Write a sequence for this structure.
């Protein structure tokens, strides 16, 4: 049985999956965009968990991922991953973005999460070109899923029409 990949234009904080992915910053203390929305919707328990991670390892590096409770949201967990800031494309941004998806999926598997929802990582204030980000997201997720049967569903949750159309195009181009 192959994992299903679905696409929605929605609010990720309302996704009914085992874990949602947060496009976090290295401090893990909340911010703007999807990060702020997740912290607001989940409540203070997410920040408490983030503070424990900071005490243990000092934040989260670009491309890496950590897991916390989801607090008041329908999901069980939030996987916080730090996407790269776009800096022209010659500074490992594409590889770092791919690592965000790989490391989030690996953390989901390690925590027995069968379903996961991703936002459009790095396409907001971090300025990653949306089309390239959609290509990397879809390819990385498909590659990961081809090597595991531990994930049943991956949901791409887009906040805006442009990202929705770009991810939809990538999914259509990559149909088996």
């Amino acid at each position: 049985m192959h994992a299903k990949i679905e696409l929605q234009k929605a609010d990720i904080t309302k996704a009914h999956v085992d874990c949602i992915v947060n496009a976090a910053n290295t401090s893990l203390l909340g911010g703007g965009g999807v990060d702020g929305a997740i912290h607001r919707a989940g409540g203070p328990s997410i920040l408490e968990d983030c503070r424990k991670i900071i005490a243990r390892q000092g934040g989260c590096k670009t491309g890496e991922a950590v897991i916390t409770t989801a607090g008041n949201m329908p999901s069980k967990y939030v996987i916080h991953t730090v996407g790269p800031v776009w800096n022209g494309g010659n500074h490992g941004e594409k590889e770092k973005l791919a690592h965000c998806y790989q490391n989030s999926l690996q953390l989901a598997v390690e925590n027995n999460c069968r379903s996961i929802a991703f936002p459009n990582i790095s396409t907001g204030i971090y300025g990653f070109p949306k089309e390239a980000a959609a290509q990397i997201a879809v390819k990385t997720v498909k590659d990961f899923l081809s090597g595991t049967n531990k994930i049943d569903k991956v949901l791409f949750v887009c906040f805006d029409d442009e990202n929705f159309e770009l991810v939809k195009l990538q999914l259509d181009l990559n149909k088996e």
In short: The mean pLDDT is 95. The first helix runs from residue 33 to 42.
